Amino acid sequence: xxxxxxxxxxxxxxxxxxxxxxxxxxxxxxxxxxxxxxxxxxxxxxxxxxxxxxxxxxxxxxxxxxxxxxxxxxxxxxxxxxxxxxxxxxxxxxxxxxxxxxxxxxxxxxxxxxxxxxxxxxxxxxxxxxxxxxxxxxxxxxxxxxxxxxxxxxxxxxxxxxxxxxxxxxxxxxxxxxxxxxxxxxxxxxxxxxxxxxxxxxxxxxxxxxxxxxxxxxxxxxxxxxxxxxxxxxxxxxxxxxxxxxxxxxxxxxxxxxxxxxxxxxxxxxxxxxxxxxxxxxxxxxxxxxxxxxxxxxxxxxxxxxxxxxxxxxxxxxxxxxxxxxxxxxxxxxxxxxxxxxxxxxxxxxxxxxxxxxxxxxxxxxxxxxxxxxxxxxxxxxxxxxxxxxxxxxxxxxxxxxxxxxxxxxxxxxxxxxxxxxxxxxxxxxxxxxxxxxxxxxxxxxxxxxxxxxxxxxxxxxxxxxxxxxxxxxx
Length: 475
Description:
By secondary structure, the protein is α/β, with parallel strands linked by helices. About 30% of the residues lie in helices and about 15% in strands. The protein is built from eleven helices and 14 strands. A hairpin with a 2-residue loop joins strand 5 (about 160) and strand 6. It is globular.
């Protein structure tokens, strides 16, 4: 397979029509960590304003029904860069500093295709697809890497440059600025050739940090202050592209990896109008802000039909003229017609995966069906969810998923159930789940913690009952 991958990348390079290097389209992707659907003013936030992100939204396409491929970090990033659902790669959970696996070298990332086509490729920010050297960005098509290899709440925070540690002790209050200046430097150094810049900010993941310049600026707490600094970062990159006359030749994509971490309260962001958040397969966990901007090419519009993070891979390959892989299943759809011709996505479906393992839901147009689920007791990172039978929602009328129409509309329910079963039957082969020490240990600790909590609650209830019985007997 490795040999096949190398031949594929060679073929992509040879298939290109020789043109002036500067005529090739640049691509910049902002990928924000844990940013909620309504954390941006153009998506309904009224406690603060995000003028730079709003500029992209107002002058480009703002997608109202865009989905991440996963409600947690590592799987969603793997999907973005490969155009494939995470369980095709065996990636169901996040990687930790003690994980010894990562994204497979057999996978083909958009960075590898663009690198083979002569692009300068750089990632600045959070990688989170494996920290051992064979899994790091330089081994997956990136010429340059600066950032943290995993989430900013994990142990042993370090800055890597390339494959080496550059700083062992980092100041997270300067992280957003540091990434921004690195991004500006990357553009300045590569402005004379086509480039792919992937800028996955560690913010808005807890712990939340911003620089002193932005502290108190939103008037709505630290979370709002940090959103403003991320918005500033977007503006600085836009300004740099504009100064070099590159906006007319750069596709800018802005999105989030999953929904907000609601368990963190005021530090967890918001998904107003949607149900639940990060870690769940409800809308609040998977529906994300998504914007595409290309000055002079994309006409301003609001697109209200389904799209997915998975779509950016085939879109970028098509719009840059590189050959997408033909030896593996891609799950995204080319959005070129949506971006440039006011067209429609060729599919109106999106599949939901419970815990990134099995398909348990499907959206077709306005309708979403979800298979039964047992009660899940929440923990420090995931909200509790009640047990439920099969759910059927009309998401256009009810994005908050409050009214179950499964019994009210039996014909629609049967139609959606059939569509879900057909989707599952044709999905194809998936890889076994990547098992790491960190994943198993975390899951076991979570289960043990919940058992202790449940037992303590039971003991407390019984103790209270004994007190009441004693009081009654004493009377």
